[in-house]
Every structure is written in C-alpha cells, then in structure tokens.
Design a protein that fits this description.
- With 99 residues, this protein is of the alpha/beta class.
- The chain has a 3-stranded parallel beta sheet, with helices on one face.
- The longest helix has 11 residues.
- The chain is globular, with a radius of gyration of 13 Å.
- It has a single domain, classed as 3-Layer(aba) Sandwich (Rossmann fold), CATH 3.40.50.
C-alpha cells in the first residue's frame, strides 16, 4: 500500500469531525469519553491514549477530567500539528505523540 492509502487526508479528517465533533473520529464525542472514565479520579494522573487519532479524547481527559498528562500513541504522526491548531494546548497538558 502506498502512503496515500494508509493515512487519513485532511479532508477525510475534517469530514469525520463534521459528523462526530471536533477532534473525534468516531461517534460519542466528549460525552462518550466521560462515560469511559466515569467513577475514576483522573486528577493529575498520567494517561496513555493508544490510537489517539485527532486528539479529542485526550483533550477531554485533561480539560474536563483533570488528567495531568496524556501521552498519545498513534500511527498518524502528521496529525500532531492538526491537533495543536484545532485545540491549542489546555493548561497542564503535556501531549506527546509517539510513532
């Protein structure tokens, strides 16, 4: 497969966001992220986000649930600038993308 066949284009990512919300590539949005961590105390915790996609869930974990650090691991390294441009950096977020 060529690189073009294995990576999301900016247009495709924008279409996903139109359907599911800023930073999200699948249904549920920030409400779904909240359900996943419901009942957990994330204040100041370090979290590993495997398959971090466009960054929406990571941003929610910091801005809405108090996580101190999120490390995003994904195969789409070129998405990092997209995430920064879409959200800026919430205070306290240290966001690392590993490939």
């Amino acid at each position: 497969m060529s690189k073009d066949e294995t990576e999301y284009t900016d247009d495709f990512a924008a279409g996903l966001e139109l359907m599911w919300g800023q930073g999200f590539m699948s249904p549920g949005g920030s409400e779904e992220a909240g359900l996943i961590v419901q009942g957990l105390n994330l204040q100041g915790k370090e979290i590993l986000d495997i398959g971090s996609g466009l960054g929406g869930p990571s941003i929610c974990l910091v801005s809405q649930h108090g996580a101190g650090r999120v490390v995003g691991i994904g195969a789409k390294f070129h998405r990092e600038p997209f995430c920064y441009n879409s959200f800026g950096m919430p205070e306290g977020l240290i966001w690392e993308f590993l490939v």
